[in-house]
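Hi Y.,

Following your request, here is the sequence exactly as I used it, all 467 residues.
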Amino acid sequence: MHVHILGICGSFMGGIAAIAKSLGHTVTGSDTNVYPPMSTQLENLGIALTQGFDTDQFEPAPDMVVIGNAMSRGNPAVEYVLDRNLPYTSGPQWLLDNLLKDRWVIAASGTHGKTTTSSMIAWILEDAGLNPGFLIGGVPENFGVSARVGVSPFFVIEADEYDSAFFDKRSKFVHYRPRTLVMNNLEFDHADIFENLAAIQKQFHHVVRCVPASGTIISPTEDEKLNEVLDMGCWSETQTLGNNIAPEQSNGMCSKNDWQTQLITADGSEFDIYHKGKLVGTVSWELIGEHNVSNAVMAIAAAHHAGVQLADAIQALSRFENVKRRMEVKGEVAGITVYDDFAHHPTAIKTTLDGLRKKHPETKIIAILEPRSNTMKMGVHKDTLASSWQEADEIHLFEPNNLGWSLKDMVANSQVPVHVYHETKDIVAQVVDTAATGDQILVMSNGGFNGIHQTLLGALAHKHQNR
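Below is the corresponding structure, written out as tokens. Let me know if you'd prefer a different format.
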């Protein structure tokens, strides 16, 4: 079958392409916004890409058109499909029909941590020899690809609450029918799709309704918004993650929560895990941040539900390599480290910076942020944004032309020095001029950010070579 994918370079649709190719289909696709790592993955798979949405791409006519949720009415390719009555479907529906209906689906959902948690789960299963399939909205370093079919009954998926397509406004994860469901957290996001938090909670409850009675739902006790979702009705086993344990509480601990942790190092690079009040092991790994500690416990719990022994799951995480664009070190020049991180929501910005600060308590942290998400552009988070970066020493903000509000409003609300720019080259020039040996430069964006990471590294190398 010839499958043609509109919007193929999105992380989810690129994963659909990889899976369709693995299932033996002829796969083609088109998009306008192409940048690594997804473009590289598609090229390596030998998938032919069309730049743009010209209707010539439908010659010869495909057997099925999979339409990404970034596609809308008025797009020439979309209108052609509708006018010619070509068979079409959404990515989530295609995945259910062609793969998920026969698998034990382990789904990781939540406003934050979906990509990292699903990557951890897939790696734990892989390390245990279970050879899972997966589809993740990023490229886990342990695998080098964002999606594969796998050969075991298990399929791990990043369960996104974003809508499925212009013709199906249900959240993607409603199609996945998970047997194991992780719900990491819940905050308001995707303001271009949801009018309020209650609308997102409704979608989360839709997926809760799909989990069988023999399935398991794993969530944090302290997240009231998720508790409200479960209070709408739950028909499955539930497991809970509680607060971190203080050292003085660790002996003889008894808790109503199924899972708890105790930090050994402040940055979260080493911590103990408790299951039903019993110490079951210690994770020592390369990741940092309490948010990743929480992600790790969720992943261990999910893998344990699938049959992995706790000791094996804990040991697997010591060999876990993080996802590209999640605190990914892009390079180091003259002792100055440049990171790339996907953070684009105030909570994610805050937790990422908190982890970096705890790892480097005495080091200068320079944060560079591009407010690129639709929610950020709409100004939904403008009142809380300044409080999210207080662990940094200085902030450099890129203000795109299509931003509906002024980032300069943030300057007065920040205790940290803030600089606003309209050109990325100006950010590079300023940061390179002031950065010194030992500094940590954290770049945060959910897009390509005009290749600023490599530009920074190149400019730093040029500066220090000429000294």
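DSSP finds 13 helices and 23 strands in the chain.

Thanks again,
Q.
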